[in-house]
Design brief:
Glutaredoxin; 13% strand; alpha+beta; 124 residues; 4 strands; 40% helix; 6 helices
Length: 124
């Protein structure tokens, strides 16, 4: 039934200046298994800079960053399967990303959304 998730939360670093990104991050955190499985930090916040100085503002403004409990970081579409595993009832969707050709398509779609996120969220 999917990969077990540890008690240590993963940390999702997102563009806190984008309404769509904020709403998505809050939605993911609320749905994360057992609460406490996901922490969210805005990219340009002091706590993010203090805790994760190795992740540049440029990197996290280009794509969301998911820091796993062991310290490994996944960016953009590559973070989606791990996020899905942390949401009750949606973990099975993570297997879709293992299908042949799925990852490159997901990366292209994610890159387009990330590039157009301010327009998509009706902000300027």
């Amino acid at each position: 039934m999917g990969t077990p998730v540890t008690a240590t939360p993963a940390v999702l670093i997102y563009d806190g200046e984008c309404a769509m990104c904020r709403a998505s991050a809050l939605w993911l955190m609320r749905l994360a298994l057992s609460g406490g499985q996901l922490e969210i930090l805005p990219c340009r916040s002091a706590p993010r800079r203090e805790r994760f100085p190795g992740i540049s503002d440029e990197a996290c403004m280009t794509a969301m960053q998911l820091v796993l409990p062991g310290g490994r970081t996944l960016a953009g579409a590559d973070a989606v399967p791990e996020l899905l595993r942390r949401i009750r009832g949606l973990g099975w969707l993570a297997t879709v990303f293992a299908l042949p050709g799925a990852r490159p398509v997901a990366r292209r779609v994610y890159a387009w959304i990330a590039k157009n996120r301010m327009r998509l969220s009706c902000e300027r």
